Amino acid sequence: MNRTGPASREDVRVAEDLHVIKLTGISKSFGPRRVLEDISLTVRKGEFIALLGASGSGKTTLLRILSSLDLATSGELEVAQNRSVVFQEPRLLPFRKVRGNVTLGLSAKQRREADPLAALAEVGLAGHSDAWPKSLSGGEAQRVALARALIRAPDLLLLDEPFAALDALTRVKMQSLVLGLWQRHLPGVVFVTHDVDEALALADRVLVLKEARISVDLRLEAERPRDRTSSEFSGTRSRLLAALGVTEQSDRGPAAAGIGDQEEK
Q1: CB within 10 Å: which end of the chain, N or C, has fewer?
Q2: Phi and psi at residue 72, to the nearest 5°
Q3: Exposed (0-12), middle (13-18) or buried (19+): which is 179, by Cβ within 10 Å?
Q4: CA–CA dist 202, 175 (Å, integer)
Q5: Measured between alpha carbons, how far is 251 from 195 in angstroms, rounded to an integer?
């Protein structure tokens, strides 16, 4: 089907077969500024995609389109209806206990069938169901956000830099947690990150957004957990950094591992 006008929410259809995402010629403009240009992408259920790009490259815009929080200017869009989003901030309601935050947004029928205690146990918070959000650490709050996403048993899980605000040690622990949850439930995943090492540790495929287009679509074959000290990891890392226009530093400082702060769009 050809399309010349803006994509509407009616264009977001249940993905057929095992596809949870199928984009054809998706573009997005904000006034005269073209943020996404002719994006075509297919993601299968159970596939883990990491999306890299410099600040302002359109990563979050693409994720917002996939989650129906924004509309594409043009193109064709097929996305699984059963999808969940985890944002950079946990976005917990302070006046609801942890259990209530996990079931937030569920219908009455879904709440009757859901098991928030089991969801919390999966993210390592079995004893926190009656806690208030203000008593949680940053990592614990983001675990609650993950439990809230997973309790819906999504076919597609969208993560927008969910660990950006966490310290380095907590971030590594959360990476392992997400990888374990993905391996147990096997949703399709699109994981937006600025961290090249994070993308290489987690993903089946790494995409690079540059100049409004997907400039790299790299499939990773190494088994997980991946050895970050291996020559293969280092070589792939250097390739991705070069594609991003980043000069790798010998001390593996911030310019070597990451590619910017939160993006504008």
Answers
A1: N
A2: -70, 150
A3: middle
A4: 7
A5: 16
Q: Is residue 99 part of a domain?
A: no
Range of the domain at 10: 1-82+158-167+189-265
Split into its structural domains, the chain has a count of 1
Within 8 A by CB and 6+ apart from 156, the residues are 20, 21, 43, 45, 66, 79, 80, 82, 83, 84, 187, 188, 189, 190
Residue 206 lies in a domain: yes
Q: Residue-wise over 29-59: b if at least 16 C-beta within 10 A, else e?
A: eeeeebbbbebebebebbbbbbbbbbeebbb
Q: Is residue 129 part of a domain?
A: no
pLDDT at 200: 97
The pTM of this model reads 0.87
Asked if residue 177 is part of any domain, the answer here is no
CA distance 228 to 220: 13
Residue 251: what residue type?
D
CA distances 22 to 12, 40, 77, 197, 202, Å, are: 10, 7, 6, 27, 22
Measured CA to CA, the distance from residue 15 to residue 78 in angstroms comes to 6
- Identify the CATH number of the domain in which residue 219 sits: 3.40.50.300
Residue 119 is predicted with a pLDDT of 96
In angstroms, rounded to a whole number, what is the distance separating the alpha carbons of residues 177 and 142?
A: 11
Number of Cβ atoms within 10 Å of the Cβ of 152? 18
